[in-house]
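Quiz preparation item.
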C-alpha cells in the first residue's frame, strides 16, 4: 500500500521568514512569509496582506488574542493567509483566507470540503507545520512561565526563520 502522494509530486524546501509583529484588532500577532527561495511574496500581495490586517483582522481576532499569521505563497499566484490564535489557554484556532490570480483582496476560504461534518478537512501543509511547530513550542514555554509582562515579551520575541 502506498501513501496518498501523487507519483509526479516532487517535494522541495521552502523558507519561513519572520516579517513583523502586528497589533491588530487588539491581538498580538507574528507575521511570517512562507515561500520558495526564488519566489518571494510580491510587494503588491504584501500590501494586500497589510490591508487585510487594517480592514479584516478585528472581525477574526479578539482583543487579547495572541497568535501568528502565515502568508504562504503556493505557486505563481495563489496565496493562503492562515490566521492562528491561541484560545482556551492551549488550543490553536485558525481562520483561513486566500487570494488567487488578480483578486483585489484576500477572501475567506471555504473549500466546501467535506460537505458533511466529521470527515477530515485540510489543516496545515508540511511547510506550514514547521512554523506551527515552533509557535506551539513557544506558546508552551509561555504557558509554563509566570505569564507576566516579561514572559509575554519573551513570547513575542520568540520567532522562527529558516528552511522548512
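Solution:
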Amino acid at each position: 500500500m502506498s501513501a496518498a502522494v501523487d507519483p509526479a509530486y516532487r517535494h522541495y524546501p521552502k523558507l519561513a521568514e519572520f516579517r513583523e509583529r502586528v497589533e491588530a484588532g487588539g491581538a498580538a500577532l507574528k507575521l511570517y512569509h512562507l515561500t520558495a527561495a526564488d519566489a518571494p511574496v510580491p510587494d503588491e500581495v504584501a500590501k494586500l496582506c497589510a490591508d487585510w490586517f487594517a480592514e479584516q483582522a478585528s472581525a477574526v481576532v479578539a482583543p487579547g488574542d495572541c497568535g501568528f499569521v502565515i502568508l504562504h505563497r503556493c505557486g505563481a499566484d495563489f496565496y493562503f493567509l492562515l490566521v492562528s490564535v491561541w484560545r482556551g489557554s492551549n488550543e490553536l484556532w485558525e481562520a483561513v483566507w486566500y487570494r488567487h490570480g488578480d483578486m483585489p483582496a484576500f477572501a475567506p476560504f471555504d473549500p466546501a470540503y467535506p460537505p458533511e461534518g466529521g470527515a477530515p478537512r485540510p489543516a496545515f501543509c508540511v511547510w506550514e507545520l514547521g512554523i506551527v511547530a515552533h509557535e506551539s513550542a513557544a506558546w508552551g514555554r509561555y504557558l509554563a512561565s509566570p505569564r507576566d509582562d516579561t514572559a509575554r515579551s519573551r513570547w513575542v520575541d520568540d520567532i522562527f526563520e529558516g528552511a522548512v
